[in-house]
Design a protein that fits this description.
The protein is mainly beta. The chain has one domain (5-147): Hotdog Thioesterase (Thiol Ester Dehydrase, Chain A), CATH 3.10.129.10. It has 1 helix and 7 strands, in the order βββαββββ. The protein has one helix at residues 63-80, and strands at residues 11-13, 31-37, 43-50, 85-94, 103-114, 117-125, 131-141. Strand 6 (117-125) and strand 7 form a beta hairpin. It is globular, with a radius of gyration of 15 Å. The structure holds decanoyl-CoA (MFK). Decanoyl-CoA binds at residues 18, 71-72, 75-76, 79, 86-89, 115-117, 138, 140, 142. It is an enzyme of class 3 (hydrolase). Belongs to the THEM4/THEM5 thioesterase family. InterPro entries: HotDog_dom_sf (IPR029069), THEM4/THEM5_acyl-CoA_thioest (IPR052365), Thioestr_dom (IPR006683).
Length: 149
């Protein structure tokens, strides 16, 4: 199966320790996720397959499902770069309808930090780099105990 060039050198990342999330927890069966990490960059990656249960309009993935996975993958890039944070704002642009059962790829990245604020961007593309959604958000660093760490 063809995958985007940017994914070729990545190693899979196991989120097993993060079991309670409705996006990444093992109880979740509607969205297949495989995460990837690049230790040398402020980026985090996911391969995603939305099953039919995530549809809104027939055959089309619900925008809220897409936003949830982007939020999770954007949040993870802050955690994995040792900046535990929560989403303060999230904007998602939907560029074309995403059919259910189609594999897509997410790339998230820390753009900059300003005090407690972490500016994070994300995008969702298919293997041909066609853009389905992109996102930007401000995540705010919080003490570990605020998020159960
Ligand atoms: C491996 C593990 C992977 C884990 C992945 C997890 C992904 C999931 C991520 C989530 O979905 S988290 C859940 C959804 N988000 C929340 O529940 C957050 C709810 N909101 C809050 O808890 C507070 O409002 C917040 C921590 C965001 C801010 O409250 P604080 O009282 O701590 O901070 P404050 O209000 O003083 O703001 C700190 C800075 O953030 C800025 N800020 C706060 N809210 C903002 C906002 N909405 N938009 C833009 N900036 C904002 C604020 O202006 C300020 O900037 P400056 O330092 O420059 O003055």
């Amino acid at each position: 199966m063809k995958i985007p060039d940017e994914f070729q050198h990545l190693t899979p990342y196991n989120m097993n320790s993060y079991t309670d999330s409705f996006v990444s927890g093992k109880q979740q069966k509607y969205i297949e996720l495989q995460y990837y990490r690049d230790e040398n960059s402020l980026k985090f990656y996911a391969r995603v397959l939305f099953h039919v249960e995530t549809q809104g309009a027939p055959g089309i993935v619900h925008g809220g499902a897409i936003a949830s996975v982007l939020d999770e993958t954007m949040g993870a890039v802050s955690f994995l770069n040792k900046m535990p944070a929560v989403t303060a704002s999230l904007t998602v642009n939907y560029h074309r309808p995403l059919p259910v059962e189609k594999t897509v790829y997410i790339i998230t990245q820390v753009e900059k930090t300003e005090g407690r604020k972490i500016y994070i961007i994300g995008k969702m593309v298919d293997k041909n780099q066609r853009l389905f959604a992109d996102s930007k958000g401000i995540f705010v660093k919080v003490p570990n105990e605020r998020i159960g760490l």
